[in-house]
Amino acid sequence: MTPPDRHTAVFLHRPGGLHPGFDTRIKPWYSPGEIRLWPVQVMWLLENLTLLKAGRWPPDPVATGYTEGPIRGGVKQAYFETPMCWACEIEERLKLCGKDGVLTRQCVAEGWDEITLAEIMGVEPYRIQRRVWRCVHYCSGWKRRKVTYHEFINKKKVVIK
């Protein structure tokens, strides 16, 4: 297995991980039925956003011997609906994040280097990484959040005694 690219690696090595008990590494491929919008899956969708917007689901990198063709079995929708729906959902969630959503798109979907972005913005690289990470977490979850992005990032940590 090849190591994840540098952009992905930055977000994977966090204290405590993403979800305790779950594998926090981005898999090379997810089927549409596997998407539950965990942070690692949001990252994967962002990395493949251009392809999803074009109406194509990213191909499975493991050669199965089958070519892309129509999927039979009771599915009553066009082949491009699922990828485009996921792309629209991710884009809408990024819009809710404002400037951090744009920054996340630049770093993850478009492959910009966070060090270069930090130099352009005149901030430390860890601040870019933190903003992208918070945006990815805000975009994760099966339903959209009921709180605004500003409320989400300013939420105080509750200490249980």
Question: Could you describe the 3D structure shown?
Answer:
With 161 residues, the chain is an all-alpha fold. It has a domain at 36-59 and 77-152. The protein is 47% helix and 0% strand. The longest helix has 16 residues, at 81-96.
Note the main attributes of this structure:
161 residues, mainly alpha, 8 helices, globular
Task: Give a short synopsis of this structure.
The protein has 161 residues and is mostly helical. It is 47% helix and 0% strand.
Straight-line N-to-C gap: 43 Å
Order of helical and strand elements: HHHHHHHH
Strand element count: 0
Q: Which strand-content bin applies to the residues?
A: under 5%
Average pLDDT number? 80
Rg, please?
Answer: 17 Å
Helix content: 40-55%
Largest beta-sheet details: none
Shape: globular
Please work out how many helical segments DSSP would assign: 8
Chain-wise SSE layout:
Layout: H1 6-12, H2 39-47, H3 49-53, H4 81-96, H5 99-109, H6 114-121, H7 125-139, H8 149-153
